[in-house]
């Protein structure tokens, strides 16, 4: 009996420990690791990379010998030669049934680099797929980190909004007491009631936004049931720092590197299409087994060299023209990618500085409105100002507080966007930028 109770108690402790472990908040570092494993975009990019690498391996080369075999059975109206003539004046055996097996080896020895260019093309595409995979990982880190930043902002905003609703309701109670004493008009109660409804509506919008972010984050983390906001570890927003990308690395930004590799692949394909008009030298060897209805097997081998000389192939001419146009198109796309990169980097950098300045200005404005609201509250209680003035100031103060929270989060996301664009984002940098720590 005692042993049974002890066993049940230990099982209970284990279940409690498991439940506690499951309720432990997920840190940003853990969320990034999980999203890199489960996020759909990352898994797709990884599969594409592995497929491209498999297609560019050594076995994909056309210079590796090819081995083929065939089996055949023939029944004819008239007898056929079973074995070739081996002796003069000795006629070979005939049979109207033939069984034949062939093993053939063919080895492309030289084709003026056509096959080599095609294999280099597959390697260039594999390099591009690898860069895309690394970019997908950075974008996954970016989306997960941005979700944590936004959730932190929304949690703080929700707290401010809850405090506002609570404060307005307390003010309403005080106004109702004054109304019963006949010291204020009914219109003042209607005004504050309208303000409360507005504040509660804004709170609902914030809760809906949190719910949508949690839905996306749940899928990216590979969790079956939607996680709650309590399972998202809080971030501590420290300084509002700016991320300045390393100038040496911008020349190898992921988007530009991918465009370069893709252009190289098309150039190599165009080179191969030119060389398809040149001769090819192949070695071949054949082992042949033949027999008739008597099943006496005869075998013979042949070796030789084959020279293929293209004379005219309209399809190759058209293919060459297509590849030339594609190479030109890729060159233009590379130039466009460079332009877009410069424009995007300039846009994000300008937004960085603008947001930082707005944060500083909004902080000053928040301090001013807080003091204004304090003075107007005192003035209203003394009957020297109207409720409309007080609620107007209160609404402005709430909007400025929300704006400050949004801009601090925006600055962090801008930093992360620049790190992705320049190809410098990793888990450690993302966590520091999210918290506002200097690198």
Produce the secondary structure layout.
Elements: H1 2-22, H2 28-38, H3 40-55, E1 66-81, E2 94-110, H4 114-180, H5 186-221, H6 254-275, E3 280-291, E4 298-308, H7 314-381, H8 387-421, H9 427-435
Helix pairs in contact: 2-4, 2-5, 3-4, 4-5, 4-6, 4-8, 4-9, 5-8, 6-7, 7-8, 8-9
Task: Kindly describe this structure.
The chain has 439 residues and is α+β, with helices and mostly antiparallel strands. The chain has one domain (36-435): Up-down Bundle (Outer membrane efflux proteins (OEP)). The chain is built from 9 helices and 4 strands; from the N terminus they run H-H-H-E-E-H-H-H-E-E-H-H-H. It has helices at 2-22, 28-38, 40-55, 114-180, 186-221, 254-275, 314-381, 387-421, 427-435, and strands at 66-81, 94-110, 280-291, 298-308. It has a 4-stranded antiparallel β-sheet with strand order 1-2-3-4, with no helix packed on it. Strand 3 (280-291) and strand 4 (298-308) form a beta hairpin. The longest helix has 68 residues, at 314-381. It is elongated.
Quick summary of this structure?
The protein is an alpha+beta fold and 439 residues long. Helices cover 65% and strands 13% of the residues.
Provide keyphrases for this structure.
439 residues; Outer membrane efflux proteins (OEP); 13% strand; single chain; four-stranded antiparallel β-sheet; elongated; alpha+beta
